[in-house]
């Protein structure tokens, strides 16, 4: 790791630590316990050490002792910060006791050391005395070494000097910037000054993206020669020197040449004279300074120039662009793959292409992908490859990290400058991001919460909330290109790979990122100094994966990362009981603990011992309650319980969590009551759910105490509110930052509900006018409140009304100018929607001018929809859903020019008849449309822009489209699915669809005719069409077909279907189910050389599988279930070479398992076998040491083996086994050996009474062995579920 970066990182760390040691509140407490003098002494010593850090950095390369000194200092700084935090926690606990009094119930939850002010008890019980001595000794030793190492006080200097940029460029060696160049020149020509002010054109991009190169191209373009009288270029760089920049421009524009004066006033006057009444172009390259005052002084001579003069600036920072120009910045993006390849070729062997070395092009593609198409990285790599000859040496470079080494490359030094120029408070924030793997997408406020928890963000002295400070830090890093917006998800961000490398370099051995790319299971690479751990979530987390943490006792961060989000993991996860109950409680320094998405039923009480904890993530776990000890985590700032669908209660003493700022309990349907103490949490900013209690819990009026709530909140069980005053006291109208509100009553409309009272309650719950989202559910009033639809709430963008069954009319929502998403569901008593819905609008103004998505659902009595003079125009509507509106028969003309997706279910064809101007419609899904006989006739103007079409359950449908040539206009239609249309006779017309790629037909009883041929089809599925007279011939799409699925086809003949003499090169998947007429596959094997999977289910007369499967080099998956006549699995023992998935169930005529030759399947990972009453043992000829299964197996399922008695000793050879499922094996009484069981990730036992008895929790003899397997299921119940 580069110690140059360590110095800056450590300097930022010490700056924050010194501020903490100077805290007035802390010093008061330390004075009371008698150790304030000790910490003051420490602070003095640290100030002395801080002063010599730069000198230490300069000497560490040549002096190993200095390098070790810096490492020891950083480690001590972490330990000292932990101790300071512990002392702060102690001070807070005592303050709670003093404020609440000794009789408070809080006393029961606070550790005994805090209920007794005995200083000696405190120092002894928490081990403070020993920690003080240890830190004092280490600090004193480091201080003494300053003289021994000859370290002296210096001012922190620059990391290195770079050559200044110039205007010269070799244009023939630049690739991929032609379009950018033209856009900048266009801006130069188009932007004209209307006064004497100059036009400044900012170009922004990350380091190394090619900003300078782009401006060089523009600067030297021939078209600019006659455009400007004078041109000048100045490299500003990070060391902003107005004298130097002014002199450089003056020398370029004056006839006198070199200027030796250092008098800034004289230089400015002379430059002004030279620019006076001249039209000029000046480039200021690589600007970092955001000080407007400096820029204001520098620009004064430029004001003398002619209107039309231009200044182009390049910068990495958006803030610089905003300070220097009112013109929006031009953001420069990365190269395309083709351009990056050309650039690599140019610098690797002086050519524009790989034509002379075609064998290197694929390696070259991998290399530019590794460089993430960053020009500087590609150029540097190309320079390294100049000495590499041939594919072998290129491969060596590709697989090594040498091209990233500082001494060999420009990449890290260039980015180091970006890091060096960061303010101290941002340096640690950026270093923390080393926890994110490359290409990992993260969300802004999740990262801000982590920073807060780690103490990297402090409250501002300028009345900024800590979240606002963190948001500012994030925006700064984004503006400086350390972060980039994700191209896949607008709400997320990523780091460029090279910035990710920089973060790893900065963090050094303090951050450990466990993922497969970093070869996570190598404990010898793990430093005991690790403070932060992240890892990519596995479905099953074994203790073995984390046993390295036994020696990493000072860990602060335990952060699993999902491919999706922190709150919504992509799949369910299972955590070894030993990790949760034995490993994590030992990590007493934890500040961030995330267990989001794991199937956890309970937390250990020892969670309360994690005194430093600030962030606790338990989203989407299976917890029913939290232990009361959580209430002692007084440093906790963020508690995430979103999606805990079993959660029934929170700790009773929530008021102890005095620092809690964010409590996310959204989507917790079983949580019906909340502790009243939540209302005492003055710091609370986020409360995503509040249930109104009718007993002793939190009441609606208690929301009035939480003045700073922001974001979203769901206020539920409002039927429990007995007094309108409670709603008024909640004071929602005085919470301007609460912009998303959901109001919900009970779904039970019983006699206790009073519709007049509920309307009064809704009136009193009027929110602040900043509201952007409103949802009302199960409201029992007859009409909505007047504030709903009021034009004062003009910021409303999303509204949802659900099952407000008594309402007879809708509010005037059409007058809300920014409303984008409207959903109205289950309002049974509305019969007519008319003018009242559109509200008051100005002359010529359309209702719903911004509406993008509109849903009407389950409106069982809605009969009439009136427009404005018979018409409704929704110019921006993209998505329309109408479902369960069976009585709607009167509809206005709906003009929908932007509509992209239409979903209509259980409604009349007349609704479709009135949709017009459908020139943008791409997707249609029609289900149970009454009276629909022809799809094309249902629309007055049929949308020929269609890309996807689904029709389902339309019993009156006879034809999709007429057989005329109009269907040929559907040139974009790629997907058609037809399901459960009982009167549909023919689909022959679809052969005219020129772009059709996917065709799925299911459950059409009367369907007789299909097209004779299809040309470009990629996916074909046909099932349950018993009246089909003939099957299409597929040879016309033999080159395009990828997936073929045939089901419930009695007379299926694959030879006829596929034709003869054709090779289906693209076909990768073949699925056949319930095809009882199928007896065999085509003779000689399938004409599918690239087939990957065959799945066959319930084909009762099939006797053998395809021949010559050994020739299928890509074949990896085979399933044969319930094929009673199947006699051969691999005819002539032609075994597929890379088969990895094999499932065989209830195929009773197959040879004995021992004769299959499974040991030859060296790539087999998954094997499912069952339905074989004859099987007694997994041995061959009762050889106990032999197992017929291959050792490569990682996942094994045994199902319906009624006579299986033993698994054989040979099972010990299954060294890769991780998942074992044993189902319906009643005679089996023994599992594999102990050492194998301990390695399992999942064990499932179902309907195996002998095994079940031996596996019972805390009772069976297998229990001690299987207790720490992440997932053990016995008869469909998880063993740690307290309420199975």
From TrEMBL:
Domain Disease resistance N-terminal intervals: 14-101
Residue ranges of every copy of the Disease resistance protein winged helix domain listed in the record: 435-503
Pfam family, one: NB-ARC
Signal sequence, start to end: 1-24
Stored InterPro entries: Apaf_helical, LRR_dom_sf, LRR_R13L1-DRL21, NB-ARC, P-loop_NTPase, Rx_N, WH-like_DNA-bd_sf, WHD_DRP
The organism's place on the tree of life at top rank: Eukaryota
Record keywords, A-Z: ATP-binding, Leucine-rich repeat, Nucleotide-binding, Plant defense, Repeat, Signal
The NB-ARC domain, residue ranges: 178-350
Domain R13L1/DRL21-like LRR repeat region, first and last residues per copy: 700-825
GO biological process, one term: defense response to virus
Gene Ontology terms, MF aspect: ADP binding; ATP binding
PANTHER family: DISEASE RESISTANCE RPP13-LIKE PROTEIN 1, PLANT BROAD-SPECTRUM MILDEW RESISTANCE PROTEIN RPW8
Family the entry assigns: Belongs to the disease resistance NB-LRR family.
Annotated protein name in UniProt: Disease resistance RPP13 1
Species of origin: Olea europaea subsp. europaea
């Amino acid at each position: 790791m580069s110690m140059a970066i360590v110095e800056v990182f450590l300097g930022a760390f010490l700056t924050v630590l010194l501020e903490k040691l100077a805290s007035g509140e802390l010093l008061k407490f330390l004075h009371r316990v008698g150790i304030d003098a000790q910490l003051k002494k420490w602070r003095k010593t640290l100030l002395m050490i801080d002063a010599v850090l730069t000198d230490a950095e300069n000497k560490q390369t040549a002096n190993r002792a200095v390098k070790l000194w810096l490492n020891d200092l950083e480690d001590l700084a972490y330990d000292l910060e932990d101790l300071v935090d512990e002392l702060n926690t102690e001070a807070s606990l005592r303050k709670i006791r003093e404020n609440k009094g000794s009789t408070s119930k809080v006393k029961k939850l606070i550790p005994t050391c805090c209920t007794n002010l005995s200083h000696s008890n405190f120092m002894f019980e928490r081990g403070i005395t020993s920690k003080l001595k240890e830190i004092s000794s280490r600090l004193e030793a480091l201080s003494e070494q300053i003289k021994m190492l000859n370290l002296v006080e210096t001012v922190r200097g620059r990391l290195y000097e770079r050559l200044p940029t110039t205007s010269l460029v070799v244009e023939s060696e630049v690739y991929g910037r032609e379009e950018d160049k033209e856009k900048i020149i266009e801006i130069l020509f188009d932007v004209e000054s209307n006064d004497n002010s100059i036009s400044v054109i900012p170009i922004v991009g990350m380091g190394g993206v090619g900003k300078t190169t782009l401006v060089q191209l523009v600067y030297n373009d021939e078209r600019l020669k006659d455009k400007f009288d004078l041109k000048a270029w100045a490299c500003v760089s990070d060391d902003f020197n107005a004298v130097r920049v002014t002199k450089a421009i003056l020398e370029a524009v004056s006839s006198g040449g070199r200027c030796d004066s250092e008098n800034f006033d004289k230089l400015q006057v002379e430059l002004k004279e030279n620019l006076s009444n001249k039209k000029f172009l000046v480039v200021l390259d690589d600007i970092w300074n955001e000080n407007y005052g400096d820029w204001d002084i520098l620009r004064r001579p430029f004001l003398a120039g002619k209107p039309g003069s231009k200044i182009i600036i390049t910068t990495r920072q958006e803030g610089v662009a905003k300070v220097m120009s009112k013109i929006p910045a031009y953001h420069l993006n990365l190269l395309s793959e083709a351009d990056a390849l050309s650039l690599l070729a140019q610098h690797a062997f002086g050519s524009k292409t790989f034509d002379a070395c075609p064998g290197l092009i694929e390696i070259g593609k991998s290399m530019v992908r590794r460089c993430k198409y960053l020009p500087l990285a590609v150029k540097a790599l190309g320079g390294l490859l100049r000495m590499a000859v041939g594919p072998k040496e290129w491969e060596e470079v590709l697989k090594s990290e040498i091209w990233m080494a500082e001494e060999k490359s420009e990449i890290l030094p260039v980015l180091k400058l970006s890091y060096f120029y960061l303010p101290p408070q941002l340096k640690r924030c950026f270093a923390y991001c080393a926890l994110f793997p490359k290409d990992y997408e993260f969300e802004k406020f999740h990262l801000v919460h982590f920073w807060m928890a780690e103490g990297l963000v402090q409250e501002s002295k300028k009345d900024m909330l800590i979240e606002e400070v963190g948001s500012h830090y994030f925006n700064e890093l984004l503006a400086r290109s350390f972060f980039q917006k994700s191209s896949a998800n607008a709400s997320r961000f990523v780091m460029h790979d090279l910035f990710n490398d920089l973060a790893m370099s900065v963090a050094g051995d303090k951050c450990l990122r466990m993922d497969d790319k970093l070869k996570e299971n190598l404990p010898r690479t793990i430093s005991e100094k690790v403070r932060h751990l992240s890892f990519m979530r596995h479905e099953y987390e074994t203790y073995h994966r984390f046993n390295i943490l036994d020696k990493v006792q000072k860990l602060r961060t335990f952060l699993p990362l999902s491919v999706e989000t922190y709150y919504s993991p992509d799949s369910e996860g299972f955590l070894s009981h030993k990790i949760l109950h034995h490993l994590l409680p030992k990590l007493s320094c934890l500040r961030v603990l995330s267990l989001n998405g794991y199937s956890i039923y309970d937390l250990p009480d020892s969670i309360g011992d994690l005194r430093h904890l600030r962030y606790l993530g338990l989203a989407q776990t299976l917890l029913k309650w939290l232990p009361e000890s959580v209430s002692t985590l007084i440093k906790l700032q963020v508690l995430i319980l979103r999606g805990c669908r079993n959660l029934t209660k929170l700790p009773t003493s929530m008021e102890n969590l005095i620092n809690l700022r964010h409590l996310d309990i959204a989507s917790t349907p079983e949580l019906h009551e909340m502790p009243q103490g939540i209302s005492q949490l003055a710091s609370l900013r986020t409360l995503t759910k509040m249930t109104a209690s009718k007993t002793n819990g939190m009441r609606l009026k208690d929301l009035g105490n939480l003045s700073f709530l922001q974001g979203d909140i769901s206020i539920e069980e409002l039927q429990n509110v007995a007094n309108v005053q409670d709603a008024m006291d909640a004071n929602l109208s005085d919470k301007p930052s609460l912009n998303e509100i959901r109001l919900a009553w009970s779904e039970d409309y019983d006699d206790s509900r009073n519709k007049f009272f509920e309307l009064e309650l809704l009136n009193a719950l009027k929110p602040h006018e900043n509201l952007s989202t409103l949802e009302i559910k199960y409201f029992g009033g007859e009409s909505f409140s007047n504030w709903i639809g009021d034009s004062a709430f003009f910021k409303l963008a999303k509204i949802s009304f659900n099952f407000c069954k008594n309402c007879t009319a809708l509010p005037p929502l059409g007058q809300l100018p920014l409303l984008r998403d409207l959903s109205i569901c289950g309002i049974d008593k509305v019969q007519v929607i008319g003018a009242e819905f559109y509200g008051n609008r100005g002359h010529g103004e359309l209702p719903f001018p911004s509406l993008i998505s509109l849903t009407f659902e389950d409106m069982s009595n809605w009969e009439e929809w009136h427009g404005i003079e018979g018409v409704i125009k929704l110019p921006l509507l993209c998505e329309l859903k109408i479902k369960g509106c069976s009585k709607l028969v009167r509809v206005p003309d709906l003009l929908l020019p932007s509509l992209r997706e239409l979903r209509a279910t259980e409604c009349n064809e007349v609704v479709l008849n009135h949709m017009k101007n459908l020139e943008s419609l791409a997707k249609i899904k029609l289900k149970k449309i009454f009276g629909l006989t022809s799809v094309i006739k249902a629309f007055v103007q049929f949308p020929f822009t269609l890309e996807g079409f689904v029709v389902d359950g339309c019993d009156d449908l006879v034809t999709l489209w007429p057989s005329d040539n109009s269907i040929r206009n559907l040139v974009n239609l790629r997907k058609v699915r037809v399901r459960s249309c009982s009167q549909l006779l023919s689909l022959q017309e679809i052969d005219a669809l020129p772009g059709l790629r996917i065709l799925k037909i299911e459950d059409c009883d009367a369907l007789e005719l299909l097209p004779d041929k299809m040309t470009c089809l990629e996916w074909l599925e046909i099932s349950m069409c018993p009246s089909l007279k003939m099957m299409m011939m597929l040879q016309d799409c033999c080159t395009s077909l990828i997936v073929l699925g045939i089901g419930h086809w009695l007379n299926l003949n694959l030879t006829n279907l596929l034709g003869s003499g054709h090779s289906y090169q693209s076909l990768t998947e073949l699925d056949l189910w319930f095809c009882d007429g199928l007896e065999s596959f085509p003779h000689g094997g399938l004409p599918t050389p690239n087939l990957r999977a065959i799945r066959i289910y319930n084909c009762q007369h099939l006797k053998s599988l395809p021949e010559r499967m050994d020739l299928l080099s890509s074949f990896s998956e085979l399933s044969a279930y319930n094929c009673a006549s199947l006699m051969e699995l691999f005819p002539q023992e032609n075994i597929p070479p890379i088969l990895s998935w094999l499932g065989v169930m209830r195929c009773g005529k197959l040879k004995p398992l021992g004769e299959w030759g499974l040991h030859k399947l060296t790539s087999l990972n998954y094997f499912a076998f069952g339905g074989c009453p004859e099987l007694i043992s997994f041995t061959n000829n009762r050889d106990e040491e032999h197992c017929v299964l291959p050792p490569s197996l990682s996942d094994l399922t045994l199902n319906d083996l009624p006579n299986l008695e033993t698994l054989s000793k040979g099972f010990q050879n299954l060294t890769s086994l991780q998942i074992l499922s044993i189902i319906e094996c009643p005679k089996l009484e023994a599992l594999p050996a102990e050492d194998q069981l301990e390695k399992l990730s999942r064990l499932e036992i179902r309907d195996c009474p002998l095994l079940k008895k031996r596996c019972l929790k805390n009772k069976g003899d297998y229990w001690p062995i299987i207790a720490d397997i992440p997932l053990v299921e016995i008869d469909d119940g998880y063993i740690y579920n307290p309420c199975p």
